[in-house]
């Protein structure tokens, strides 16, 4: 994998991870979202004006564009496992930003993910 392809993929993963964190921040602001036939329009309206949701959607859009640019340079069998790094980024960020607990077993799993992505990228 060349530097250009890796850069696009990593940027796509980072934007995707940021999008997830922004969406979580939005749900923290709005509380539990329950969609019913009677309230779906109002709930989507609340989400549409919540700044974290707007930022998350924008990040998702940019991540899609950057990801496509990366896929044009890297085989999908190498690119797709890179998405696993988003889990690592989000687990660490959620620990610090949202005070979410990360157990020893989860840290061990994260280590295996990093090792697996490294092995795939080197193949």
Gist of the model:
By secondary structure, the chain is mostly helical.
Assign the structural class, choosing from mainly alpha, mainly beta, alpha/beta, alpha+beta, or little secondary structure: mainly alpha
The percentage of residues in β strands lies in under 5%
Which range best describes the helical content: under 10%, 10-25%, 25-40%, 40-55%, 55-70% or over 70%?
Answer: over 70%
**Low-confidence segments:** none
- The geometry reads as globular
Main pleated sheet: none
The total beta strand count reads 0
The number of helical runs is 6
Following the backbone from N to C, one meets helices and strands in this order, namely HHHHHH
- Rg to the nearest angstrom? 17 Å
- C-alpha termini separation: 9 Å
> Any idea how many domains?
1
Mean pLDDT: 92
Describe the structure.
It is a single chain. The protein is 80% helix and 0% strand. By secondary structure, it is mainly α. The protein has one domain (3-122). Helix 1 (3-30) packs antiparallel against helix 3 (51-71), helix 4 (76-82) packs antiparallel against helix 6 and helix 5 packs antiparallel against helix 6 (104-122). The model has no long low-confidence stretch (mean pLDDT 92).
Structural descriptors:
123 residues, mainly alpha, globular
Please give the structural blueprint.
Layout (H helix, E strand, L loop, with lengths): L2 H28 L9 H10 L1 H21 L4 H7 L1 H14 L6 H19 L1
């Amino acid at each position: 994998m060349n530097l250009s392809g890796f850069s696009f993929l990593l940027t796509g993963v980072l934007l995707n991870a940021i999008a997830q964190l922004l969406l979580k921040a939005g749900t923290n602001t709005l509380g539990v979202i329950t969609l019913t036939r009677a309230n779906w329009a109002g709930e989507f309206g609340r989400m549409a004006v919540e700044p974290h949701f707007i930022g998350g959607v924008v990040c998702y859009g940019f991540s899609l564009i950057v990801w496509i640019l990366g896929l044009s340079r890297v085989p999908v069998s190498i690119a797709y496992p890179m998405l696993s790094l988003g889990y690592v980024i989000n687990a660490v960020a959620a620990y610090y930003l949202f005070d979410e607990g990360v157990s020893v077993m989860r840290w061990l799993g994260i280590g295996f993910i990093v090792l697996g992505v490294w092995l795939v990228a080197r193949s």
